Amino acid sequence: MNPRSDIHDRLAASLRDARKTRGLSLDAVAKLSGVSRSMVSQIERGESSPTVATLWNLTQALQIDFAGLLEGRTAPGIEVVRAEAAPVIGGRGQGLTIRILSPAEDVGENEVYDLRFASAGRLDSEPHSAGCREHLTVIEGLVRVTSGDEDSLLGPGDTARYPADRPHALAAEDGPARALLIVQDS
Fold first, then answer.
1. Are residues 57 and 128 in the same domain?
2. DSSP string, 90-144
3. Which residue in 57, 105, 98 sits closest to 79, CA to CA?
4. Claim to verify: residue 12 and residue 102 sit in the same structural domain
5. pTM value?
6. Do the Cβ atoms of 179 and 137 come closer than 8 Å?
7. Number of domains, the chain
8. What is the pLDDT of residues 136-180, one digit of tens each?
């Protein structure tokens, strides 16, 4: 057997298996790695010889061991992101910290955020894509949810599910608050 084709076959199988194990589409891997969708597809079919830089980008996106790529070793099944390592962004409002809990590949599909409101903190949002919904669960304090012309006050343990394809807002009432937010694009 030609060693070159054996290496291509093992490389193709390792990358394809890693992508499928993580439930990622070719488009998602392309977005995460910066490697074009067509190149990812060609590599997975064993039709292209990727550069070391391309392989490095793919292994980082798929969270697999570069050194063990041809041996089929992958990253552990449990991915842990320590609290201090989760990305944090400021709110598009006042008195709000947003910690991103979902992986980068979920952007635009299912996004999960930990919201921490200061007293009277708020988040005002423009309409998201058609059919987008948000699911907010209050952990501490009181949060007023407004979607279009409707609003509701939530306390600890309460969950609101509402359309996010219209102007909507979240606001802490009577002190600081904390909530988990899931943004679900259709």
1. no
2. E-SSSSEEEEE-S-GGGTTTEEEEEEEEPTT-EEEE---STT-EEEEEEEEEEEE
3. 105
4. no
5. 0.59
6. yes
7. 2
8. 999 999 999 999 999 999 999 999 999 999 999 999 999 999 999
